[in-house]
Write a structure and sequence with these properties.
Elements (H helix, E strand, L loop, with lengths): L4 E7 L6 H9 L6 E6 L4 H9 L3 E4 L6 H11 L4 E6 L3 E2 L3 H11 L4 E12 L2 E2 L3 H9 L12 H6 L13 E3 H4 L12 H10 L4 E14 L4 H7 L2 H13 L2 H11 L4 H4 L1
Parallel strand pairs: 1-2, 1-4, 2-3, 6-9
Antiparallel strand pairs: 4-8, 5-9, 6-7, 6-8
Length: 262
């Protein structure tokens, strides 16, 4: 039992994938605490929580991605917390691999994250975006670079190479309400950018231990359809590069949207 760790599941509406997410977490070879957090309380979420004997916490405040994530993060009462998204799944060794990495790490840690694969049409697959982002993360395999600000920024400079549901946060080093970005879609990328500029380690495990789901109801697809993602991607690239180079990058980066549009 990893008593210092919590899976805080962010549930919204009535996602048909929520129970699969819950099962993948309860099926961990090393157990840890599990809670469900929601700002849209309903019978569906309540029934799943009761079925698996999981604590259900309701955010009665503002309901948006930032506030929902901060609520899920703050509600966890352990040193480490993983924010699980309701439509994603975890390899049964996620917690065990996290525990092993933490035992060997002797620096101040901000976040831990791992490799991942997409799930599309109920099948674990891969795509060019996943491969490119894995390449961007390669420098983080070297422990010496884990707390190097330049290298941390470099791995984020050509796109968000960190898949949000794979991340475990060290609450003792990050304190409360870690999500401060005003962006709506790229809140995770912007958060990692801010943390990359902070003192502390990005602990990376290249093993494939999490799976994010691509489907028509995904938040990513909604932000592509309303063009909000394009605006926010440009804003993020401008944090790393001169705007003329951002324009050049976006000619290629927009092809990543095809993951959700094809």
């Amino acid at each position: 039992m990893f008593k210092e760790h919590t899976f805080s599941i962010c549930a919204y509406g009535e996602s048909k994938y929520l129970e699969m997410c819950v099962k993948s977490i309860l099926n961990q070879t090393m157990k840890s605490k599990v809670i469900i957090c929601t700002s849209t309380p309903n019978a569906y979420i309540k029934n799943i929580a009761e079925k698996y004997n999981i604590e259900l916490h309701v955010n009665s405040g503002i309901s948006n991605i930032k506030d929902d994530w901060n609520f899920a993060y703050n509600t966890a009462d352990t040193k480490y917390v993983t924010l699980a998204h309701q439509d994603d799944c975890y390899n049964s060794r996620y917690t065990y691999e996290l525990y092993k990495k933490l035992k060997k790490y002797n620096k101040k840690m901000l976040i831990y994250y791992c490799g991942y694969r997409p799930i599309k049409d109920s099948k674990i697959t891969t795509d060019i975006n996943c491969i490119i982002r894995a390449v961007l993360r390669i420098p983080m395999k070297i422990k010496l670079f884990s707390d190097n600000r330049f290298v941390k920024r470099l791995t984020l400079s050509l796109g968000n190479s960190i898949c949000c549901p794979t991340v475990t946060y060290d609450k003792e080093n990050l304190k409360e309400s870690v999500f401060t970005s005003d962006l709506k879609f790229n809140i995770d990328w912007d958060t990692f950018y801010k943390l990359a500029n902070s003192k502390g380690g990005f602990l990376y495990n290249s093993k494939i231990l999490a799976y994010y789901r691509i489907h028509d109801e995904a938040t990513s697809k909604a932000f592509i359809d309303n063009n909000e993602r394009i605006r926010e991607d440009i804003e993020m690239f401008d944090k790393f590069w001169p705007h003329f180079f951002t324009v050049f990058l976006m000619r290629f980066y927009k092809k990543a949207y095809e993951t959700y549009t094809k």
